[in-house]
UniProtKB/TrEMBL annotation:
Residues 88-214 form the B12-binding domain. Residues 1-88 form the B12-binding N-terminal domain. The chain holds residues 618 to 831 of 1127 of the full protein. Belongs to the vitamin-B12 dependent methionine synthase family. This is Methionine synthase. Modular enzyme with four functionally distinct domains. The isolated Hcy-binding domain catalyzes methyl transfer from free methylcobalamin to homocysteine. The Hcy-binding domain in association with the pterin-binding domain catalyzes the methylation of cob(I)alamin by methyltetrahydrofolate and the methylation of homocysteine. The B12-binding domain binds the cofactor. The AdoMet activation domain binds S-adenosyl-L-methionine. Under aerobic conditions cob(I)alamin can be converted to inactive cob(II)alamin. Catalyzes the transfer of a methyl group from methyl-cobalamin to homocysteine, yielding enzyme-bound cob(I)alamin and methionine. Subsequently, remethylates the cofactor using methyltetrahydrofolate.
Length: 214
């Protein structure tokens, strides 16, 4: 197998045996950490999603794949470029209520933190009232919401309404597999007082918040 195939396979198989050695080989060959994540590791995760959809994997196996992905991201994180050290702004991040997927959100955390943002990561399955409490406490410049399930897209609409009702109107960055720009513009934006930005991936999220803070 090629290095790329092996890297994808660690995620599909949900194993860490040999993973770090191969990640190090990729780094030594000059791969950028984010290209490893967005390339072979993500294609492994897409394959996991496909197999899961076809009932060829059970949740416990998908969880193992998630563990491998998290371990790989942790290994690569110290090798990522740190751009601005000057603090650009504070972001409160959460996966919305009813949703426990956190790999994408944590990737957003790493990328924003490496680029000068202060991150308060609230975790997964965060209800609006908890989010509102934390936003009032931390007073961020931006709120970041992640969701991967179809129902999470609807939950973002509800969350936006709840934030609006609480008098909160700082920009919201939304992302996650079940979301689209169209859904964001037609359903989430009209439910909120402030700006709602849709990010297709973590790097796009960084671009958007960078533009906001300039
Ligand atoms: Co779940 N799961 N899962 N799962 N899971 C999906 C999402 C699914 C598409 C798989 C499938 O059926 N093909 C499907 C959703 C169907 C739907 O609603 N349309 C699904 C399902 C059904 C479920 C359960 C309901 C299964 C069950 O119990 N029967 C259950 C739900 C639990 C719940 O949330 N209440 C469930 C559970 C799980 C595990 C716990 C086993 C595990 C998650 C572990 C964890 O996160 N700690 C898991 C996993 C791993 C997946 C897949 C295979 C991979 C997700 C992932 O981590 N991708 C996923 C299929 C797939 O996506 N291919 C699937 C890698 C990650 C880096 O990508 O999070 O998309 P992603 O982030 C991207 C972008 O979306 C974006 O940037 C990232 C890239 O740079 N992004 C943002 C994300 N958040 C952002 C926020 C931003 C900006 C960008 O700003 C704030």
């Amino acid at each position: 197998l090629t290095l790329e195939e092996r890297l994808a396979n660690y995620i599909v198989e949900g194993t860490k045996q040999g993973l770090f050695d191969d990640l190090q080989i990729a780094l030594d060959e000059g791969w950028k950490p984010l290209d490893v994540i967005n390339g072979p590791l993500m294609s492994g995760m897409d394959e996991v999603g496909r197999l899961f959809n076809n009932n060829e994997l059970i949740v416990a196996e998908v969880l193992q794949s998630a563990e491998s992905m998290k371990a790989a991201v942790s290994y690569l994180e110290p090798h990522m470029e740190q751009r601005d050290v000057k603090k650009k702004g504070k972001v409160v991040l959460a996966t919305v209520k009813g949703d426990v997927h956190d790999i994408g959100k944590n990737l957003v955390e790493i990328i924003l933190a490496n680029n000068g943002f202060e991150i308060v990561n609230l975790g997964i399955n965060i209800r609006s009232d908890e989010l509102i409490r934390q936003v009032k406490e931390h007073k961020p410049d931006i709120i970041g919401l992640s969701g991967l399930l179809v129902k999470s897209a609807q939950q973002m609409v509800t969350t936006a309404e709840d934030l609006k009702a609480a008098g909160i109107h700082m920009p919201i960055l939304v992302g996650g597999a079940a979301l689209t720009r169209k859904f964001t513009d037609t359903r989430i934006s009209p439910s909120y007082e402030g700006l709602v930005l849709y990010a297709s991936d973590a790097m796009n999220g960084l671009d958007l918040v960078n533009r906001l803070q300039h």
